[in-house]
Amino acid sequence: MSQTTACPLDCYDACRIVIDGNGALKGDNTHPITKGYLCPHLNHFDEFERINEPRFQGKKIAMSEAIELLCNALQSSNPQKTLFYRGSGNIGLMQRSMDHFFAGMDAVGTRGSLCDGAGEAGILQGRGVNYPLSPAMIDEADVVIVWGRNPHVTHSHLLTTLKNKSLVVIDPVRTALASNADLHIQIKPHCDLHLALLLSRFTLIEGFHDEEFLERYGSEYGEYYELTQTVRIKATLVAMDVTLGQIGALLELVRGKKTVILVGTGVQKYRNGAEVLRAIDAFGAILGLFGKRGCGVSFLGNSMQGLELPFRSLHKTVPIPNIDFSSFDTVFVQGGNPLSQMPNTAKVEEAFAHVGFKVYFGLYENETSAQCDLIIPAKTFLEKEDVRSSYGDFTLQKMAKLRDSEIGISEYDLSSVLCHHFNLSIPQEEECLAMLYNQMQSIDGVDCKKVAPILPYEEGFATDSGEFIFMDEVDLSFSDEEGIFLLTPKAAKSLNSQFHRSQGVYVHPECGFFVGEEVIIRSKTGSLRLEVHHDDRLRHDCALIYAGTPGVNRLTPDLLSYDGENAVYQENKIKVEKC
Ligand SMILES: Nc1nc2c(c(=O)[nH]1)N[C@H]1C(S)=C(S)[C@@H](COP(=O)(O)OP(=O)(O)OC[C@H]3O[C@@H](n4cnc5c(=O)[nH]c(N)nc54)[C@H](O)[C@@H]3O)O[C@H]1N2
Ligand SMILES: Nc1nc2c(c(=O)[nH]1)N[C@H]1C(S)=C(S)[C@@H](COP(=O)(O)OP(=O)(O)OC[C@H]3O[C@@H](n4cnc5c(=O)[nH]c(N)nc54)[C@H](O)[C@@H]3O)O[C@H]1N2
Ligand code: SF4
Ligand SMILES: [Mo]
């Protein structure tokens, strides 16, 4: 049996893991991304207390009893009123074996995203398919623009790739990367659309757009230039808190250089998130960055792109950011914590309380497990076979079972038991794994998808015309809501709501609040009391509450992005008041 696996966590890096003689987890130093290092989550993985035994209404029960209760509940539940909610606590492909069962019983699933759906929708409109750039391709760039992404926290293995390059950071926070960048544009939140339009406009005015590329792959750029002219320059610069000098400096850095733009989820936690990505992509197209080595615009890729699964998928679905749980009799939550991570927590809590039978299938106790009737412990990624695809590159890695444990049940085994009970077919586990292994190829000793493009967009775009499609209209209005901006980026010590979760609200030291003071934070959606921390990397018009902080989503609205059915965690402004 191989002694290596891959990290299952929802993270760009998809690290390769080896287990040493003492059973400790280490980074595989033969792997080009992991290079021998993991991160705090995996270095301390065995220290986090997991759920050891199944429970029904607070009482410990045997796994066989838990499965019987589950079968009975599902048997008597109307499929239309049965919801399967799969979070992203483990993004191994075998997690989807449970989709196979719930699709077979004709239950309801989810669509849309809490994460990157708005940005992806914008990318699909322009490019037809969403490919990320592999770290090897980023390594060939001269200049990297990091736009609404925080690699020190969210994918630390990229940092070595960014060394010795000209760096531009566009972020309302002076992140660790911003402190060392050649240029940091500390933009006001929610203004990236305007900045991207202005960058395109000035590139065209200055005449260093890639005419050859545009004639071939973006012939509508003349019309797009007209659209960018609708931006009122002076007023917009003031509104964004960006100077002409900064725009000039950015353009000077990228002029004639191999440039990569790395876009993160920060720019698209708003209703117009798709438009933002389209405008950033358009700037990339105007510079001619697609289909060339060491160049490109890279967001979170679609980890399922080009993969065929051995499982059925659910056809009846509801958008995940605004599920009304109260319209279901039975809810099965797997690998997620909707009572903390979905927006508008108060509404979610109330609706969830109305569900007749609630099941939690996971590793750790959290807000959701606390409200469920039946708790089924999962096996950790070390205790089951799986395959891991990635949204940060094109790797597709085997995850071998490395440990035995008496605790929990794997997703495949639970699905298999349920399928048999309901008389539904399911392929053998070995067949499922073989089908996934079959889609791998080894490139320089690293297992990747067979369908991975070597140079994304080399042959043009996957749109009807084969060209990049520019936006032909845009909503340039700024919100006139009163209050300051809420930022909810990822925290270093937690992975969403797993591991060491942050506490408190962070404000600039000059904002009139003392460290340790309790404040009440209000938004249109709800309110929350938190303790104040200072952070001088913030703008004065922003307060920061890390994603995964208990209660943060009491403040966030359950609206959908205009495209992509994504959550919009930063759409609401907030007020911070003394108690
Ligand atoms: N340690 C750790 N790593 C993680 C995660 C975690 O919870 N913890 N979560 C994983 C998951 S699920 C995901 S989706 C990825 C996301 O990883 P990233 O894409 O890096 O996302 P965030 O940390 O949410 O936000 C990135 C940056 O956007 C900035 N930002 C916020 N608003 C704006 C804005 O309006 N404009 C601009 N230009 N910037 C803005 C924030 O200040 C932040 O620095 O990380 C993954 N990796
Ligand atoms: N305010 C705010 N809210 C956000 C975000 C934000 O930026 N700001 N980010 C959003 C984003 S990008 C995301 S991706 C979501 C993530 O939100 P969720 O998908 O809800 O993820 P987690 O909170 O990490 O919950 C994961 C749970 O999965 C379980 N788990 C782990 N491994 C396994 C396994 O192998 N099997 C099973 N069955 N269970 C397992 C653990 O018990 C853990 O508690 O949160 C979103 N919520
Ligand atoms: S950096 Fe990401 S992929 Fe690597 S070990 Fe940490 S959480 Fe897992
Ligand atoms: Mo995410």
Largest sheet: 6 strands, mixed
Associated small molecules: ligand MGD, iron/sulfur cluster, molybdenum atom
What is the end-to-end distance? Answer: 59 Å
**Helix segment tally:** 18
CATH class of the largest domain: Alpha Beta
The strands making up the biggest β-sheet line up spatially as 5-4-16-15-14-6
Q: What proportion of the residues form beta strands (DSSP E)?
A: 15-25%
Low-confidence stretches: none
So, CATH architecture of the largest domain? Answer: 3-Layer(aba) Sandwich
Can you tell me the number of structural domains? 3
The radius of gyration computed from the alpha-carbon positions, rounded to a whole number of angstroms, is: 24 Å
Task: Tell me the helix content.
Answer: 25-40%
Structural class: alpha/beta
Average pLDDT over all residues: 97
DSSP summary, beta strand count: 28
Categorize the overall geometry.
globular
- Examine the coordinates and then state which fold CATH places here, giving the name of the CATH topology of the largest domain: Rossmann fold
If you had to describe this structure to a student in words, what would you say it looks like?
With 579 residues, the chain is α/β, with parallel strands linked by helices. It folds into three domains: 52-113 and 314-448, Rossmann fold (3-Layer(aba) Sandwich); 117-298, Dimethylsulfoxide Reductase, domain 2 (3-Layer(aba) Sandwich); 484-578, Barwin-like endoglucanases. Helix content is 26%, strand content 19%. It has 18 helices and 28 strands. The strands form eight sheets. It has a six-stranded mixed β-sheet, with helices on one face. A six-stranded mixed β-sheet has the order 24-26-25-28-21-27, with no helix packed on it. Helix 9 packs across helix 12 (233-240). The N and C termini lie far apart (59 Å). The model has no long low-confidence stretch (mean pLDDT 97). Bound molecules: ligand MGD (2 copies), iron/sulfur cluster and molybdenum atom (MO). Molybdenum atom (MO) is lined by residues 10, 115.
